[in-house]
UniProtKB/TrEMBL annotation:
Residues annotated as domain Sulfatase N-terminal: 7-301
Source organism: Jiangella asiatica
One Gene Ontology term of the molecular function aspect: metal ion binding
Full protein name: Sulfatase N-terminal domain-containing protein
Coiled-coil parts of chain: none
Signal sequence, start to end: none
Pfam families with a match to the protein in the record: Sulfatase
Length: 457
């Protein structure tokens, strides 16, 4: 059935979820609202982010361009302060130019931190509400904003950002040195047992932490259920594209902040009843850069220059007019807590990672001195440094622990993937090809050293 009009768009994101949901096969996670949304959506089983960290990945989700192309190669909040380059266009700006009303509610993490008015002006939103960190506050604001938008005479774009299940600042409920998933308002959930991913050591402390994570996912799911109920209640269900996507993998060792699959895998579901987008699962490789061109095509809006993704419409349409062309996804990591530049290419079967620094094998993402989970890594795998190149056969070695780089039997695959990765870096203008990349704080320090400014704290 063709759409009756240009669709409304509700774009929902959350932090650090990966694919840790019931609808993605994690049976101990209680996520009835998202499971129900998945039943009515096109679910992408092999969607991948462009970076295993918050801001760079989100910059891609909302521009359709890779992090190094947007300028966001690290976190956007102080003191990191990476930002979109001035010429970069957010999807809100592109849709606003096409006649859409645009609003942002909740977490904004794809450009430099600022006031509501500053973010609205920079990204092209009519309205921005960043107030409230808890999911229930975001849902209340989003529901109120949705009611206002639904009563208008123009299509709308509503972006809703949830913090959960991000790790939360320690409260009295946790011991010193540990930052878990509960904060002071979430309860652990082990009602159906606990799932410890295969890349982690399964012990009592890991199960305690995974119960916390399951509770945070359960809390998030409840809030999204309330928001979806408001969509139904306001009568905009059929003519609204609903996108739910997370930014990157779970905030666990060898997942978030790594280029291994657990860091890159994301949940992605898209529902649009009027266009027949729903009730299917797709196993093709897709990337976070593919969402913006998809939404612009659905809205009949002109894309910005140099969109680097590919519209997902061939995978969303029941009878596609053109074939799907992506046979690989690319991802990157440059800065998070420290400089650790890496790039990777992933095909159906193989993953190749190029490492540009001698840093520990993976960056700890727990934000804790006292960690509860440990990666399951064989004793013969070095953890104190990166090898220059890593190559994995994902079919035979899904946990990515047996590095095949340099082995004669795999030389042709390694050569091919190195060539493809280099071509992608060159064609997308990756500054890493010219040498080391300096962070925004470097310029601030130089201004202080030369007497033209002070280091901002």
């Amino acid at each position: 059935m063709p759409p009756r009009q240009r669709p409304n768009i509700i774009f929902i994101t959350c932090h650090d979820l990966g694919r840790f949901l019931g609808c993605y096969g994690v049976e101990t996670v209680r996520s009835p609202a998202l499971d129900a949304l998945a039943e009515e959506s096109v679910v992408f089983e092999r969607a991948h982010c462009t970076a295993p960290q918050c801001s760079p990945s989100r910059a891609s989700l909302f521009t359709g361009r890779y992090p190094h192309s947007t300028g966001v190669m690290g976190l956007t909040q102080p003191p990191f302060e990476w930002d979109l380059r001035p010429q970069e266009r957010h999807v809100a700006s592109l849709l606003g130019g096409a006649g859409y009303r645009t609003a942002l509610v909740g977490i904004h993490h794809e450009s430099k931190t600022g006031s509501d008015d500053a973010v609205a002006e920079r990204l092209g939103f009519d309205v921005v509400h960043q107030r409230g960190q808890r999911g229930e506050d975001v849902t209340a604001l989003a529901t109120a904003q949705l009611g206002e938008l639904a009563g208008g005479d123009r299509p709308f774009y509503l972006q809703v950002g949830y913090l959960e299940p991000h790790r939360l600042r320690p409260r009295e409920r946790t011991e010193d040195g540990y930052q878990g998933f509960l904060g002071d308002y979430i309860e652990p959930d082990a009602q159906r047992g606990v799932t410890v991913p295969g890349y982690l050591v399964d012990d009592a402390r890991a199960r305690e932490e995974l119960a916390e994570l399951q509770g945070a996912v359960r809390y998030l799911d409840t809030q999204i259920g309330h928001l979806m109920a408001a969509v139904d209640r306001l009568g905009v269900r059929d003519d609204t594209v609903v996108v739910f996507v997370t930014d990157h993998g779970l905030a666990l060792p060898r997942a978030k902040c790594s280029l291994y699959d657990p860091g890159l895998e994301i949940a992605l579901m898209v529902r649009y009843p009027a266009a027949g987008w729903g009730g299917r699962r797709r196993s093709e490789l897709v990337s976070g850069v593919d969402l913006v061109p998809t939404l612009l095509e659905a809205a009949g809006a002109e894309p910005a220059n140099q969109i680097q993704g590919t519209s997902l419409s061939p995978l969303l349409d029941a009878s596609p007019a053109r074939p799907w062309s992506r046979d690989a996804v690319f991802a990157e990591f440059t800065y998070h807590e420290y400089y650790d530049p890496r790039r990777c290419v992933r095909t159906d079967r193989h993953k190749l990672i190029a490492n540009f620094s001698v840093a520990p094998a993976f960056m700890d993402c727990s934000s804790s001195w006292d960690r509860r989970t440990r990666p399951r890594v064989p004793m013969n795998v070095p953890t104190g440094f990166h090898p220059p190149v890593e190559l994995y056969d994902l079919e035979l070695d899904p946990l990515e622990v047996s590095n095949l780089a340099g082995e004669p039997d795999h030389l042709s695959v390694e050569t091919d993937l190195l060539g493809r990765l280099h071509t992608w870096m060159r064609d997308t203008g990756d500054p890493l090809l010219a040498g080391a990349v300096t962070p925004p704080l470097h310029a601030s320090a130089m201004r202080s050293l030369t007497g033209t400014g002070v280091i901002r704290r």
